[in-house]
Design brief:
With 266 residues, the protein is mainly α. It has 2 domains: 118 residues, no CATH class; 141 residues, AhpD-like (Up-down Bundle), CATH 1.20.1290. 59% of the residues lie in helices and 4% in strands. It is built from 14 helices and 3 strands. A 3-stranded mixed β-sheet has the order 1-2-3. Strand 2 and strand 3 form a beta hairpin. Helix 2 packs across helix 3, helix 5 packs across helix 11 and helix 6 packs across helix 13. The longest helix is centred in the N-terminal third of the chain and has 23 residues. The model has no long low-confidence stretch (mean pLDDT 97).
Length: 266
């Protein structure tokens, strides 16, 4: 699936795709994804993609308006391409730090697949359907990403299986300052250090952070954690476009992650 994401080069958008891949890789000091053809010269798009990558929570109204106006009906599609350019290099770096085999580049370019469909309707539920990791850890990972990207929608939700398995509001409240928590255990703190590294310092993942993941999680769990961070980070698309309104005005809403990896709301 990661190779499929790398292989996307939609018809008519190859130059824009090449530009955002170059910008996003540079923004986090990682090798950019390979791209088809020459990058466009578009300062507005480059500015938006860089802010999306560095800290999506502070995309300004002016940046958003300029992007939406310029992209028109392609805004959602282009935001999905930026997300791929932003996060696949992070996943590659994370997997390398954990000792996994490299993610291979595509042999041919895919000019036809809709990036939004591949990200949200294929990749996200594929990862959501994984069940090697216990539900509380999965929820802790999700909520850390929600806070870091300031996704109002994500912060308003609580996954039901995690609540049933012992997830509590006091535990979740400790995620923001997890190092000083007496409720989060060593295993959860190890995974949160790795989540933070993927989000903020993917080019310099400390060996101790990777060793902490390896000490507490199996290969399958470590892979799932890494993909979970990317799946959860798809919220950057909604945050960047201003579409992350919470589902409830007060408190939180319970939902379940179905066996197919799709959320099921009450």
């Amino acid at each position: 699936m990661l190779t499929r994401l790398i292989g996307l080069s939609p018809e008519g958008d190859a130059g824009r795709n090449a530009l955002v891949r170059e910008v996003c890789g540079r923004a986090v000091s990682l090798p950019p994804l390979t791209a088809q053809g020459e990058a466009d010269d578009d300062p507005m798009l480059a500015d938006f993609a860089e802010q999306f990558t560095v800290d999506v929570s502070v995309v300004s109204p002016a940046q958003r308006a300029a992007f939406m106006t310029a992209m028109g009906g392609k805004a959602f599609r282009m935001a999905a391409l930026i997300f791929i350019a932003d996060f696949v290099p992070r996943v590659r770096a994370g997997l390398a730090a954990l000792g996994f085999a490299p993610v291979v580049d595509p042999v041919v370019w895919d000019r036809d697949t809709d990036p939004v469909d591949l990200v949200l309707n294929q990749f996200a539920p594929m990862v959501g359907a994984l069940r090697e990791l216990d539900p509380v850890t999965t929820e802790v990972v999700r909520l850390r990403g929600a806070v870091q990207h300031n996704c109002r929608l994500c912060k308003s939700l609580r996954e039901g299986a995690a609540l049933d398995a012992g997830g509590t509001e006091p535990l979740y409240s400790d995620i923001e300052d997890y190092e000083g928590s007496t409720l989060l255990d060593d295993r959860q703190k190890a995974v949160l250090r790795y989540v933070d590294a993927l989000i903020w310092t993917p080019s310099t993942i400390d060996a101790d952070v990777a060793a902490g993941v390896r000490a507490h999680f199996s290969d399958a769990e470590a892979l799932e954690i890494t993909l979970d961070v990317m799946r959860n980070a798809a919220n950057k698309i909604a945050v960047a476009l201003g579409g992350d309104a919470p589902r409830v005005e007060d408190g939180t809403e319970r939902y379940f992650l179905g066996l197919d990896g799709q959320p099921v709301y009450s």
